[in-house]
Amino acid sequence: MKRWRALLIGLVLFAQSTWRGTVFGRDVGSRDVTGDYVVLIHGLGRTLFSMKKVEWALQGEGYRVINVSYPSTRVSVEDAANGWLAGLLKERVLDRGVKVHFVSHSLGGIVLRHYLAANHVDNLGRVVMLAPPNRGSELADKLRSNIIYKFFTGPAGQQLGTGPDGLAERLGPATFGLGIIAGDRSLNPLLSAWLPGPDDGKVSVGSTLLGGMQDFLLVHHSHTWMMWRRDVIRGVTQFLKTGQFER
Question: How far apart are the first and last CA of the chain?
């Protein structure tokens, strides 16, 4: 009983220190951090909390992490890129002497590609995309006219189709240092039945690929929880440091 009580107290103290921006006494979120920036961009229908474990890990590595929610189900990809993301970078990236890296999940990768296609980022660093529908989503093709899908995915959900009509295919290859992590485990066999080849329940592995990428890593996780898995986070930190994934 005492052992469980001590463990519970330890977890509470760790959660409190993390919430306040500290880990084991180290103030990882303080203003005197001088490392590179990393901007996190969550996926469709998610919030900043979906990227929290990535945020904590990168703060522990000394990065200045920017993790902010955006109304992904209420705006188009263009509005998310040229409105929200542009404003966020202008407001939060103030030190022009360090690099600015990006880590995205799902739709966040398409938002970032749209922004980078039309905008210059001073000292652009490396980019890691987790499960990005870079060639569009076959699910968006199937469900585009479904009223429930429309309600829950909003304008951006209508832009994620495959082929020449889909926004993703029109954005072109990567012209920046890009690493992609894709999953091949599904929590939804019904949705997977609509996806060609291996998939993570939302995006096929083949759809994540993008011309110009530097490296690719396949992990055995689902779309929804990929960002919380230890090997994924290790891959993110490795690529940001070295430009490649270690196997």
Answer: 41
* Annotation: CATH topology of 33-242: Rossmann fold (3.40.50)
- Three-state secondary structure readout of the chain: CHHHHHHHHHHHHHHHHHHCCEECCEECCCCCCCCCEEEEECCCCCCHHHHHHHHHHHHHCCCEEEECCCCCCCCCHHHHHHHHHHHHHHHHCCCCCCCEEEEEECHHHHHHHHHHHHCCCCCEEEEEEECCCCCCCHHHHHHCCCHHHHHHHHHHHCCCCCCCCCCHHHCCCCCCEEEEEEECCCCCHHHHCCCCCCECCCCEHHHHCCCCCCEEEEECCCCCCHHHCHHHHHHHHHHHHHCCCCC
Confidence at residue 164, expressed as pLDDT on a 0 to 100 scale: 76
Spatial distance between the Cα atoms of 139 and 201, rounded to a whole number of angstroms = 10
Interatomic CA distance for residues 218 and 180, integer angstroms: 9
Which tens digit of pLDDT belongs to each residue from 185-227? 999 998 999 999 999 999 999 999 999 999 999 999 999 999 9
Which residues of the chain carry a pLDDT beneath 50?
Answer: 1-31
